[in-house]
UniProtKB/TrEMBL annotation:
InterPro entries, per database record: Pan_app (IPR003609)
Stated name of the protein: Apple domain-containing protein
Domain of life: Eukaryota
Span of domain Apple: 65-99
Pfam families for the chain: PAN_1
High-level lineage: Eukaryota, Fungi, Dikarya, Ascomycota, Pezizomycotina
Biological source species: Aureobasidium pullulans EXF-150
Length: 130
């Protein structure tokens, strides 16, 4: 005697599976990495913050471009004398650079799609004054 069992969402007779699962929202472990060298014209070291988006402040210098990697964004900031912090969006490669620091958490939000960095003051050895 043959028996068949059909689970909810599965059609065993047709040999196909149909499920509708809700994927969990991306999470990110917030990590700070200190004194990373960018190797740009300014020769600065940076403190790097995962899961952190630096928000724009209209009263400071800023610039935006697309880079292929986080290192490309950090290098672009390190080659710009006016750049003291930056944020790179992992999903689309947008690199935003800013003329101010991260300000101890003011003007930033936690977001798994972003990695940000800021100049370690006094660390620049190149042609910039940071």
């Amino acid at each position: 005697m043959a028996s068949s069992t059909s689970a909810a969402g599965n059609d065993t007779a047709a040999g196909s599976t149909s499920t509708s699962a809700v994927l969990p929202r991306a999470t990110c472990a917030s990590i700070t990495i200190g004194d990373v060298t960018a190797r740009g014209a300014c020769g600065c070291n940076y403190n790097i913050h995962t899961c952190l988006e630096r928000l724009s402040n209209l009263s400071e210098w800023s610039n935006s471009q697309t880079t292929e990697s986080f290192n490309g964004c950090m290098g672009a900031c390190d080659s710009e004398p006016n750049c003291f912090s930056f944020t790179w969006q992992t999903s689309n490669g947008v690199c935003r650079m800013f003329g101010g620091m991260l300000n101890g958490g003011a003007g930033v939000v936690s977001d798994a799609d972003f990695i940000s960095g800021e100049v370690v003051k006094g660390s620049c050895t190149g042609s910039c004054s940071g």
